[in-house]
Write a structure and sequence with these properties.
Oligomer: heterotrimer
CATH architecture of one domain in chain B: 3-Layer(aba) Sandwich
Low-confidence stretches of chain B: none
Radius of gyration of chain C: 22 Å
CATH topology of the largest domain in chain C: Rossmann fold
Number of strands of chain B: 12
Structural class of chain C: alpha/beta
Number of helices of chain B: 9
CATH architecture of the largest domain in chain C: 3-Layer(aba) Sandwich
Mean pLDDT of chain B: 93
CATH topology of one domain in chain B: Rossmann fold
CATH class of the largest domain in chain C: Alpha Beta
Number of domains of chain C: 2
Strand content of chain B: 15-25%
Order of helices and strands of chain C: HEEEHEEEHEHEHHEHEHEHHEHH
Number of helices of chain C: 12
Low-confidence stretches of chain C: 15-25
Strand order of the largest sheet of chain C: 4-3-7-8
Shape of chain C: elongated
Chains: A mainly alpha, B alpha/beta, C alpha/beta
C-alpha cells in the first residue's frame, strides 16, 4: 500500500519528470552494457586497452577489433533490440492483447521465407537482406489486405488472419529446409534462430529507432486512450482507424528492419514491453521510449553472452534471448496471476 | 453551450426494418431519458448520436454542423459518452483513467498539467472514488468502476452528456447521487441524454422522454405526456400499477 | 533391442537362403568388417549396390564397383557417370519404396548422415547394410579395399587404395620437417565455420606441415567469429566456397589488412569437393593444400 502511495506521488510530480529520470537512468545502463559488450570478446582486451583504443590509440589489431567488429555489432544489437521491443509494445496496444509480439502477424515468417529463398538460390550478403525485407513487406501487405477485406475489422480478426498466414509461412520454411542441400542448412538455421553476425551496418536501424521513438512521443497519449478500446478512444477524440493502421505499419516497418538485419530473434518484443508495464504502469509515453532503450540493453547483453559463453565458438543470439526470456516471462505471468 | 439536432434519423439496428424517423433537439438545460425494452436499440441510438455508428438515414447536427463533417476531436470537446461496456485489456489506475478525459483538449506534445490533474481529482472526489486513485481499475467492484467511468466524463466536462445506463451496478444512494450530478450538469446549462431502465428514476429526474419500441416505433415529448401507463405497458409488455408520491408518478409491476 | 531383433531376422533369412541355394555354398561367403565394427557377409559379390551418400558413391566407383551401382542419392555428382544413375532422394530422407523397387543386394550407408530408422527398415527388408564412415586417410584406403571385396573387383580396388596410400605417404614424407605455417581453414562464411584437428581437413593441414589455429576446439566443425580469426592472426587462410570457383569469401578477408595472411597475400581457394568428402580425391585436394602452404612458407 505504501509503495502504491509513493508511485502515485511520483506520478503527481508529472509524467514528464519521471520520463526524464527514467530515460536518463536507462541511457546510463545502455552505455554500460555497450561498454561491456565492446570490452569482451573471443580475444581478450583489457578495459584500459579498450579505453585507449576508443580515444584514438591502440594497435591496429585493437582498432580493427573495436571499430570494425565489436562497435558496429554492439550498435546493431542495440538498435535491433530496441526496434523489436517498440514493435512489440505497439502490436500489444494495436491488438489490445498484452501477449502479442512483433511476429504474431506472420511478419517474421515472410521475412524468413524471403531470406531463405535468397540463400537457397546461393545469393549472399545484401541480397539476402533485401529479399528478407521484401518478404516482410509482402507479409504485411498480405495480412493487411486479407484482414481489411470486407471492411469489418477487429483485433481478433487481424490476429486470426495473422496467425493463419504465419502458419502458412511456417510450412513454406519447413519445405525449403527439407529440399535444401546439406551445406546450406547451417546458414539457414542460424538465420532462423536470429544471429547478429548478419548485421552489416547499424546506422539504418539506429536511425529508424530514433526517428520512430521521436515520432511516437506525441502519439503516446492517443495510444493510452486506444488501449481502452476503439469506441472509448473514438469518444475521447481519437481518430481510431488511421491511428491503428499507422501503428500497424510502423510496427511492421520496425520488425522488418530488425528481422532483416539479424534474423528472427524471439522474446525481446514480447518480454520487454511486458516487463516494463509491470514495473512502470501503462503510460505509453513512458513505455515506448523505455522499450527502445531496454530492448537495446537486453539484446546487447544477450549478444555479448552469445559471443563469449563458449568463445571462440559462437551461439546464435536468438537462443540466448529465448533461454533468458522464457523463464522470465513465465515468472512474470505466474506472479501477475 | 452546445445543442444536438436529430433530423429524420433512422438508426441502424441489424435485422430490423427502419421504423420511425427521429426528429428532436437536445438543448442546454434538458435531461432526456430513453426508455425501452432490451434490444430496442437504445445503445445503438446513443452511439449514433455520438457519431460512433453510421445511421441508416437522416443526420445528426452538433451545433448546426453534421457530425460526419466534424473530426473526432472536435466532437469530443463538446460531447461525452458514458459507455455501458468497457474494455480493461490493459491495467490502468483510477487516476490515469479519469485523466484520459482531458485527452480531447491537450495538444499532442503536451503532458497533463496541474490543472488537468486537479480536474480529474475533483471529478473523482465528486463521485466518491478519490480514495481509490492509486488502485487499478480492474481490481474495483462493478459499482466503483461505473463511478470511475462517470468521473472520466466529468473530467472531460462536455456540454452534452450521453450516458448509457449511468446507474448500472450502483447502490441506491449512488444512483441518486449520479442522477443529482447529471441534473446539476443540466441546470448549469449542459444537456444530458441517457438510457435508463428504471421508470421511476426517469419520472423523477428527466424532463424529456423518448420511448423506443422493439419494432422501431418511437415517440418522444415532455415527461408528463410520455409517462402514460398504457404507453408504458405496451412498451415493456408488462402490466403496471401506478401511484403518485411526492408529485411524481410511481410505477410498480403488477403481479 | 530393435536392432538385434532385426539382425536375428536377417540371419534366419540368410539360413533359409543357404538351404535353398545349396550349390552356392561351394563358394565361401564374403565377409568384411564395416565402420560400425559389424561383420557384413554376402553369399555372392554384390550385383546391385545402393550407395546412400555422395561420398560412398565416389568410393564404390574408385573400388571398381561403379557399374554395379543401381541407386544413388541427391548431390552424387562424382564421377560424372554417377549423375546418370537413379536417385532415391536425399541422404537424410530416402525414398524407401523407390530404393526397394531397385532391388539392391547391398546398401552402403552413412551412419551420421542417413536416418537410423530408415537404415533399420532396410535391414528389416533383408538388404545387407555396410556402414561407411572413413575418419582418416588410411580409413579411405581401407574403405576402398573392403568395398572392392564386396563387389568382387579386388584388383582395381587394391590398385586405387595403394595409389592413394602412396600419394598421401609421399606428401607426409615431403612435409614432415617443413616449417610450421599457421592456418585458418574456412568451411563456410555465414555463419563463419572452421574445422578442428580431428576433422579430416584438420588432419590434412597437419600432414602438410600446417598448424590449424583452431585445432583445439572441441567440435569438429565449430562456429566462430571474425574476431577470433583476427586474434589468432594466421599466416594463411584457406577457404572452400559455395561454388567451385567462387572466391569472394577470400576477398572479404582483404577488409582486414592487419592480418598476416592478407599482407602476404596467402589467401588460397581449395575446391571444397576435393577435401570435404572422405574420398580418393582427397589426395588431389591434399596436394593443392600442401602446395598452398608451401607457397605461404616461401613468402615469409
Amino acid at each position: 500500500m505504501h509503495a502504491a502511495e509513493t508511485a502515485t506521488d511520483r506520478r503527481r510530480a508529472g509524467p514528464l519528470r519521471s520520463l526524464g529520470w527514467l530515460l536518463g537512468l536507462l541511457t546510463l545502463v545502455a552505455l554500460g552494457a555497450m561498454t561491456l559488450s565492446v570490452s569482451v570478446g573471443s580475444s581478450a582486451l583489457s578495459l584500459v586497452d579498450v579505453l585507449a583504443t576508443l580515444s584514438g590509440q591502440g594497435s591496429e589489431l585493437q582498432r580493427t577489433l573495436i571499430f570494425e567488429l565489436r562497435l558496429p555489432r554492439t550498435l546493431s544489437a542495440f538498435a535491433t533490440g530496441g526496434l523489436l521491443a517498440v514493435a512489440g509494445a505497439l502490436m500489444q496496444v494495436l491488438l489490445r492483447n498484452p501477449l502479442a509480439d512483433p511476429y504474431v502477424l506472420g511478419l517474421s515468417g515472410g521475412a524468413a521465407t524471403g531470406a531463405l529463398l535468397a540463400m537457397l538460390a546461393g545469393l549472399g550478403g545484401v541480397l539476402v537482406s533485401g529479399s528478407a525485407f521484401a518478404g516482410a513487406f509482402l507479409a504485411t501487405l498480405l495480412v493487411f489486405g486479407l484482414a481489411h477485406g470486407s471492411g469489418s475489422w477487429t483485433p481478433s480478426r487481424l490476429l486470426l488472419t495473422g496467425v493463419v498466414v504465419a502458419s502458412g509461412w511456417g510450412a513454406i520454411i519447413t519445405l525449403m529446409l527439407a529440399v535444401s542441400p546439406a551445406e546450406r542448412l547451417p546458414g539457414m538455421l542460424y538465420w532462423l534462430m536470429g544471429d547478429l553476425s548478419y548485421a552489416r551496418t547499424p546506422w539504418p536501424a539506429l536511425g529508424l529507432l530514433l526517428g520512430v521513438s521521436l515520432l511516437l512521443l506525441p502519439l503516446g497519449r492517443s495510444l493510452n486512450v486506444l488501449a481502452r478500446g476503439p469506441l472509448q478512444a473514438a469518444a475521447l477524440g481519437v481518430a481510431v482507424r488511421p491511428l491503428e493502421w499507422s501503428i500497424y505499419l510502423i510496427a511492421s516497418l520496425l520488425t522488418a528492419l530488425a528481422v532483416t538485419s539479424a534474423g528472427s530473434i524471439g522474446f525481446v518484443g514480447l518480454v520487454v514491453p511486458h516487463m516494463l508495464r509491470l514495473l512502470l504502469g501503462n503510460d505509453q509515453r513512458l513505455i515506448l521510449p523505455a522499450c527502445a532503450l531496454s530492448g537495446g540493453i537486453l539484446l546487447v547483453l544477450a549478444d555479448t553472452l552469445a559471443r563469449t559463453l563458449i568463445a571462440p565458438e559462437q551461439l546464435p543470439v536468438g537462443v540466448i534471448t529465448a533461454l533468458l526470456g522464457v523463464p522470465t516471462f513465465l515468472y512474470l505471468l505466474h506472479r501477475s496471476r | 453551450m452546445s445543442r444536438l439536432d436529430v433530423r429524420d434519423l433512422l438508426i441502424d439496428v441489424p435485422g430490423r426494418s427502419s421504423g420511425r424517423a427521429l426528429n428532436f433537439s437536445l438543448l442546454p438545460g434538458q435531461v432526456w431519458g430513453v426508455l425501452g425494452p432490451n434490444g430496442a436499440g437504445k445503445t445503438t441510438l446513443l452511439h449514433t448520436l455520438a457519431g460512433l455508428r453510421a445511421p441508416r438515414g437522416g443526420e445528426v447536427l452538433l451545433d448546426e454542423q453534421p457530425l460526419e463533417r466534424l473530426n473526432r476531436r472536435q466532437i469530443a470537446q463538446r460531447l461525452g459518452l458514458v459507455f455501458q461496456e468497457r474494455q480493461d485489456g490493459f491495467p490502468a489506475t483510477v487516476l490515469e483513467t479519469a485523466l484520459i478525459g482531458r485527452h480531447p483538449f491537450l495538444p499532442a506534445w503536451q503532458m497533463e498539467g496541474a490543472a488537468d490533474l486537479l480536474a480529474a481529482e475533483q471529478a473523482l472526489a465528486r463521485l466518491d472514488v478519490a480514495h481509490l486513485s492509486a488502485r487499478l481499475v480492474s481490481t474495483l467492484s462493478g459499482g466503483e468502476r461505473q463511478r470511475v467511468a462517470i468521473a472520466t466524463v466529468l473530467t472531460q466536462a462536455p456540454a452534452l452528456w450521453l450516458a448509457d445506463e449511468p446507474t448500472n451496478h450502483l447502490d441506491l444512494h449512488h444512483q441518486v447521487a449520479v442522477l443529482e450530478l447529471l441534473a446539476a450538469q443540466a441546470s448549469a446549462g449542459r444537456a444530458v441524454f441517457m438510457c435508463l431502465h428504471d421508470l421511476n428514476l426517469a419520472a423523477r429526474w428527466c424532463d424529456q422522454i423518448l420511448l423506443l419500441y422493439p419494432d422501431g416505433e418511437a415517440c418522444w415529448g415532455p415527461v408528463a405526456s410520455m409517462l402514460q401507463p398504457a404507453a408504458l405497458e405496451r412498451l415493456y409488455g408488462q402490466r403496471l400499477l401506478t401511484s403518485e408520491i411526492d408529485g411524481s408518478p410511481v410505477f410498480i409491476p403488477a403481479r | 533391442m530393435d536392432l538385434s531383433f532385426a539382425r536375428l531376422r536377417r540371419r534366419v533369412g540368410l539360413a533359409a537362403a543357404l538351404l535353398g541355394l545349396a550349390p552356392a555354398l561351394l563358394a565361401a561367403p564374403i565377409c568384411v568388417i564395416d565402420d560400425a565394427q559389424r561383420e557384413v557377409c554376402l553369399q555372392a559379390p554384390a550385383q546391385r549396390i545402393a550407395s546412400l551418400s555422395p561420398g560412398a558413391t565416389e568410393l564404390v566407383f574408385a573400388a571398381g564397383g561403379g557399374e554395379r551401382v543401381v541407386a544413388v542419392v541427391a548431390f552424387s555428382d562424382y564421377p560424372p557417370a554417377a549423375r546418370a544413375l537413379p536417385s532415391v532422394g536425399s541422404h537424410s530422407r530416402l525414398d524407401l519404396e523407390r530404393l526397394l523397387s531397385l532391388q539392391p543386394d547391398l546398401a552402403i550407408v552413412w551412419g551420421s548422415g542417413n536416418s537410423a530408422e530408415q537404415i533399420d527398415a532396410l535391414e528389416d527388408f533383408g538388404v545387407p547394410v555396410f556402414y561407411l564412415e572413413p575418419e582418416n586417410p588410411e580409413g579411405i584406403a581401407q574403405a576402398i579395399e573392403r568395398l572392392a571385396r564386396l563387389s568382387d573387383s579386388q584388383a582395381v580396388g587394391r590398385q586405387a587404395a595403394e595409389h592413394f596410400r602412396r600419394g598421401m605417404a609421399e606428401l607426409a614424407e615431403q612435409y614432415r620437417d617443413a616449417e610450421p605455417v599457421t592456418v585458418f581453414y574456412q568451411v563456410w562464411n555465414k555463419p563463419l565455420m572452421t574445422v578442428n584437428d580431428a576433422h579430416l581437413i584438420g588432419q590434412v593441414i597437419r600432414l602438410c606441415g600446417g598448424r590449424n589455429v583452431f585445432a583445439e576446439l572441441p567440435r569438429q566443425i565449430p562456429r566462430i567469429d571474425i574476431e577470433a580469426v583476427l586474434a589468432a592472426n594466421p599466416q594463411a587462410i584457406l577457404a572452400g566456397g559455395m561454388g567451385e570457383e567462387n572466391r569472394y569469401w577470400l576477398t572479404e578477408w582483404r577488409a582486414y589488412p592487419g592480418l598476416q595472411a592478407v599482407q602476404q597475400d596467402n589467401l588460397f581457394f581449395i575446391p571444397p569437393s576435393l577435401v570435404q568428402r572422405p574420398t580418393p580425391r582427397l589426395l588431389e585436394g591434399s596436394r593443392l593444400l600442401c602446395e598452398s602452404l608451401e607457397t605461404a612458407r616461401a613468402r615469409r
